[in-house]
Amino acid sequence: MIIKFNLLPKEKVSPEAREISLIFLKVYISLLLFLLTFLTFLFYTTHNKITSLIQEKKQKEVILEDYKRIAIKVKEMERENEEIKKRIEIILTLRDAQGKNLKNLANVLRDVPASKLLFSNLKLDNSKAYIKGIGLDMDFLALYLQNLENNKEVIKALNLKTAQQKTIGDLKLIEFELEVSF
C-alpha cells in the first residue's frame, strides 16, 4: 500500500472570491431574467401585431368583396341605363315619326279647295302620299297642285300621274292620281 503525502501547502480560498462569484452569478441571472422578459414582451407584441394585421386583412377582404359586388351592380345598372336610353330614343323617334305623318297628312289636306276636290283614295307612307280623287274642274286641281308646291319646306316633290276628264251625266269631272314626296 502506498500512501501519498501532499507536502505542498494548501491554498486557502478567501471569502472575497466566493462573494465575487456570487455577485457575478446574481448579475448574470438578473440579466438573463431581464433578457427573457424582454424577449417575452417582444414575442407578445409581435404576436398581437400579427393577429391584428390578420384580422385587418380579413376585414379589408370583406370590404373588397363588398366593393366588387357594388362594382358588378354598377356595371349592371350602367347596362340597364344604356338600354333605357336606347328605348327612350326609339320611343322619341317613333313619336316624331308619328307626328311627322300627321303633319304631312295635315299639309296635304289643308290645301284642298272646299267642295271642289274629293279624295276617293288616300294612302300615306313615311315619305310619300298617294292620292286618287275627283275634281270639278282642271283649274281647281291646278290650284291645289300649286298650293302644294308652294309648301316646299314639307313637300319635296309632286308627281301628277294621271288626270283624265270624265263625263258623268251633264257634269264634266277630272279624275286624277297624284304622288306627293315628303
What is the straight-line distance between the termini?
149 Å
SSE arrangement, N to C: HEEHEE
Q: How many structural domains can be distinguished in the coordinates? A: 2
What's the count of strands?
A: 4
Separate helix tally: 2
Task: Tell me roughly what share of residues is in helical segments.
Answer: 55-70%
Mean pLDDT metric: 85
Task: Using the CA coordinates, give the radius of gyration.
Answer: 56 Å
Assess the beta-strand content as a share of residues: 15-25%
Structural class: alpha+beta
Shape: rod-shaped
Largest beta-sheet characterization: 4 strands, antiparallel
Low-confidence stretches: none
Strand order of the largest sheet: 1-2-4-3
Question: What topology does this entry show?
Answer:
Elements: H1 15-110, E1 117-124, E2 128-135, H2 138-150, E3 157-168, E4 171-181
Antiparallel strand pairs: 1-2, 2-4, 3-4
Write a structural description:
By secondary structure, this protein is α+β, with helices and mostly antiparallel strands. The chain has two domains: 18-110; 114-181, Gyrase A, domain 2, CATH 3.30.1360. 60% of the residues lie in helices and 21% in strands. It has a four-stranded antiparallel beta sheet, with helices on one face. Strand 1 (117-124) and strand 2 (128-135) form a beta hairpin. It is rod-shaped and about 180 Å long. The protein starts with 14 loop residues before the first helix and ends with a strand.
